[in-house]
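Ticket #4471: complex job returned nothing on first submit. Input attached below:
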Amino acid sequence: MTDKSIVLAGVDLSCIRDDRVLFEELNFTLHAGQVLLLEGKNGSGKTSLLRILCGFREADAGQVLWLGEPIDDSRYYADMAYVGHLDGIKKELTVLENLNVSLALGRPGRFSIDEALVRVHLNGYDDVPAQSLSAGQKRRLSLARLLTTGNRLWILDEPFTSLDRAGIALIESLMREHCADGGMIVLTSHHDIDLHDAVVQRIHLS
Amino acid sequence: MTLTRAFLAILRRDLVLAFRRRAEMINPLLFFVLVITLFPLGIGAQPHLLQAIAPGVIWVAALLAAMLSLDSLFRSDFDDGSLEQMLLSPHPASLLVLAKVIAHWLVTGLPLLLVAPLLAVFLGLPSHALGVLLLTLLLGTPVLSLIGAIGVALTVGLRRGGMILSLLVLPLYVPVLIFAGNAVQMAAGGLPVDAQISILLSILLLALVLAPWPTAAALKMSIN
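Support reply: We reran it on our side without changes. The output follows.
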């Protein structure tokens, strides 16, 4: 436990939902630059595990440690970002306004808003209300949030949903960059991901 | 001052959103005006009776209008995931919640204050009681938003939370209703109202300091 290079760790995590044990005594450690891929069929507890990692849900047993401390006692929330099923986009606000709000809530990251929009191929959409974006574009917008705010840990729930092939390749390249920079990613995905030389750990939930 | 920035960003966002959904936001105000204008029609030509019940009518209508507007406080944020993002922010959730409540009051409480004098004249409330009426509304309606926020935060995750919300929140509104209604009544009779105003002020300060914490905690429970 004293290994300083472990950044995120799950210790003996269990999750019980409606009297059904989704997982028990789950342990994992994540070092800088690594990816944790959660696999399993629908309803196997992937999203539940992600929500436990976000602190939305309490684990029924065990705890999540960030730099050796329980996540509630550390600077965890300044260092993580979550993109879930709900994209957290206000449809009445423009693309720019949406990103400005999330930037104000977090801390500035590697990219400015303009650069991030270029990266996710949404440049020129600044003043478009989010409700007139397509599903894939909305997804790109919520992923742009990862770039504008400074985070070491990305928690992504099915990040490739409704993205086209080019979009998937784009997000994969952003993920590779993030890992090369010492960032970490925990994600669930039904797609095969290609992250070249990043270390990918897999947890299979059943 | 990143906390100030986050606070202002939420406040500004909610005001912009309210402006873009103004048709929805005007509902409580319309309700307030309609209820009060219907009373004289229902009661008939009895100016003294109308004058006597005016403080109560205005306050009950304000209270119900506030109830009506509560659901919009967290509903859309809950549905589109913005609430999750807000709670994941490193800033204290209670302060971000306070920003939302303030924006909500500016959009739904303040307009009541602006139309109240007109409606008071309509009901025949003596003009020397107008100032007190406005003061009670100024002190009382923010309390309705602050206390209501706790109730909405507890019920936002439920599919049909409306009934439970009323049951939870209305009893807590009663002290405000009693002291505010009483103050306006006394002022109409030319009596001093310092005591009631002081009590309303202390309720407001207490709610301002104490309500955001349980609201933030309840929201964390609701998104579970």
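The mean pLDDT of chain B is 92. Closing as resolved unless it happens again.
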